[in-house]
């Protein structure tokens, strides 16, 4: 009958099985009857209904199974209804006709055959269920084995990761130690450069100064051969001094102690000096062209740094250009942030391989090649030039092709500044006392002081300094810091202890670097000037001569209050 109503095989097996179990449990109940019914309404169901009298009832296991496996399971006193929902709804007449036709075919032994067939299907269904259970058990076992393998792999990977982490921590500690050593080595290198440069400057300055004295028009005449030899000495000294200054400035730049002193610069003068300095280094088949250009408007920069940048770039081009030309052009550009000066150096030299363009800005690096073998150099020129350019607020870029020359562009910002006032022609001071134990420096300083003072009193033994000052009562005192005891600091303290000398201006002259000067011990010294490139203008500015002899605008700072434009360490004391 279930088959006639098109009830699915699975539903059919569950309904037949539970109906059989219910009949077995209710067997023997009073007035027990069972009938196959079809429920009306929605949904349509095929069901078996048991009716009986008395207290007998099916067991809890059967009721639980029927509620879980069947679509319909209702139990009441003396009534049990078990059913399954039909797959395709049939009308009452269609259902009755199909059931009657099915029942008419069941007679005699055919009923037993049908039951055997159904039992066979039931057994097959149970076998299939058992097979599925076994397959599920097998899959669960495989899953357990897979989980065990995953856990083992996870443990192994965790151990390897932990070991790797320990290695990374150890490597990081090693790298930190190496970084610390590199920092210490870099600091030691910077100190070495600074110390060596500082120690070299004093004898080199003496060589240059003595050579200039011999070449001076007022000195004893020299033979042409002697004049040429002394000129070579002066030129070599200047070259050596420039290299020493580069080393010292590189060390200062790396330690963050090199600061530009910005003043209004005369660009045409800078270009003229470069033209005269580099003319002798130009090869026979090379033309050096430096534009004679004045910047249209005020051009504020550190003139010494600018000169060194352009000299290094031009020197580098001249070294590696055997024929053709080296050209420097200057242009002004108006940009959103103000006027800029653009210096362009082009040459027809050997050029630089493309993969080495960035490396030429590494300190001491030199491009290898046939053309470079016989060219001397330290490998500091371009790195030094780029550092100075960046300190001036600009940038230096380089483009080159091997065999087709090189092009270097230096871009610097410009800004207005107050022009320097000219010095009076006549000496302004009556007497100046200079306390220094270096006879060579004293000899080179005399012509400079001769333009500022009528007489100069030199004290080479610092023990006599205070007595000489009190005796002569000079208009100004110049003191060197590095002297035998008492040193310059002690002399400054002695001067400050005398109330009558409070109005005498004191200026410190020294070859010491900025970091070596103890400014807390300078007392009332008006300024600290480096002995290198000491000029009349710088000395007059420090002594305040321009302020005293030239009327200043109201509220305008005097010369003594301005930082020295020539050297990073030559700044007024606080």
From TrEMBL:
Comp. bias (Basic and acidic residues): 563-574
Keywords from the named record: Coiled coil, Kinase, Phosphoprotein, Transferase, Two-component regulatory system
Signal peptide: none
UniProt keyword Kinase, yes or no: yes
Keyword Kinase: yes
Cited CDD domains: HisKA
Reaction catalysed by this enzyme: ATP + protein L-histidine = ADP + protein N-phospho-L-histidine
Enzyme class, broadest EC rank: transferase
Sequence ranges assigned to domain Histidine kinase in this UniProt record: 195-416
Domain named Response regulatory: residues: 431-546
E.C. numbers: 2.7.13.3
Residues covered by region (Disordered): 545-574
Name assigned to this protein: histidine kinase
Organism for this UniProt entry: Streptomyces odorifer
């Amino acid at each position: 009958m279930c088959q006639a109503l098109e009830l699915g095989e699975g539903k059919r097996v569950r309904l037949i099985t539970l109906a059989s179990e219910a009949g077995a449990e209710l067997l023997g109940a009073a007035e027990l009857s069972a009938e196959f019914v079809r429920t009306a309404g929605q949904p349509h169901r095929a069901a078996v209904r048991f009716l009986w009298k008395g207290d007998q009832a099916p067991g809890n296991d059967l009721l639980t199974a029927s509620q879980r496996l069947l679509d319909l399971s209702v139990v009441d006193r003396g009534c049990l209804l078990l059913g399954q929902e039909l797959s395709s709804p049939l009308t009452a007449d269609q259902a009755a006709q199909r059931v009657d036709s099915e029942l008419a075919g069941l007679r005699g032994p055919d009923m037993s055959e049908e039951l055997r067939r159904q039992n066979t299907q039931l057994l097959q269904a149970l076998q299939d269920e058992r097979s599925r259970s076994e397959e599920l058990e097998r899959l669960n076992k495989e899953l357990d084995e897979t989980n065990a393998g995953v856990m083992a792999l996870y443990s192994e990977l965790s151990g390897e990761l932990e070991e790797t982490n320990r290695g990374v921590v150890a490597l990081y500690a090693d790298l930190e130690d190496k970084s610390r050593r590199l920092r210490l080595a870099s600091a030691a290198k910077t100190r070495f450069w600074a110390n060596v440069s500082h120690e070299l400057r004093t004898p080199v300055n003496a060589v240059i100064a003595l050579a200039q004295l011999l070449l001076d028009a007022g000195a004893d005449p020299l033979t042409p051969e002697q004049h040429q030899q002394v000129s070579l000495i002066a030129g070599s000294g200047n070259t050596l001094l420039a290299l020493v200054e580069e080393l010292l400035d590189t060390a200062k730049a790396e330690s963050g102690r090199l600061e530009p002193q910005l003043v209004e610069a005369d660009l045409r003068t800078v270009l003229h000096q470069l033209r005269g300095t580099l003319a002798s280094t130009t090869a026979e088949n090379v033309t050096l062209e430096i534009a004679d250009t004045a910047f249209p408007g005020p051009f504020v920069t550190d003139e010494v740094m600018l000169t060194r940048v352009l000299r290094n770039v031009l020197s580098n081009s001249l070294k590696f250009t055997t024929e053709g030309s080296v050209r420097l052009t200057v242009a002004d550009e108006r940009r959103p942030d103000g006027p800029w000066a653009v210096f362009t150096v082009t040459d027809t030299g050997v050029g630089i391989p493309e993969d080495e363009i960035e490396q030429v800005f590494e300190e001491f690096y030199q491009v290898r090649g046939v053309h470079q073998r016989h060219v001397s150099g330290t490998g500091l020129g371009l790195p030094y030039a780029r550092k100075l350019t960046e300190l001036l607020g600009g940038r230096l870029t380089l483009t080159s092709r091997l065999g087709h020359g090189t092009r270097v562009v230096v871009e610097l910002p410009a800004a207005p500044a107050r022009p320097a006032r000219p010095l009076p022609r006549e000496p302004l001071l009556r007497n100046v006392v200079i306390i220094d134990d270096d006879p060579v420096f004293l000899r080179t300083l005399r012509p400079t002081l001769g333009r500022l003072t009528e007489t100069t009193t030199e004290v080479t033994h610092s023990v006599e300094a205070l007595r000489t000052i009190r005796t002569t009562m000079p208009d100004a005192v110049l003191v060197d810091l590095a002297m035998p005891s008492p040193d310059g600091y002690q002399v400054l303290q002695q001067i400050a202890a005398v109330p009558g000398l409070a109005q005498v201006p004191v200026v410190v002259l020294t070859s010491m670097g900025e970091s070596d000067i103890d400014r807390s011990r300078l007392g009332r010294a008006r300024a600290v000037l480096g002995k290198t490139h000491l000029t009349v203008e710088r000395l007059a500015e420090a002594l305040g001569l321009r302020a005293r002899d030239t009327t200043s605008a109201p509220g305008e700072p005097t010369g003594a209050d301005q930082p020295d434009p020539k050297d990073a360490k030559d700044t007024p004391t606080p």
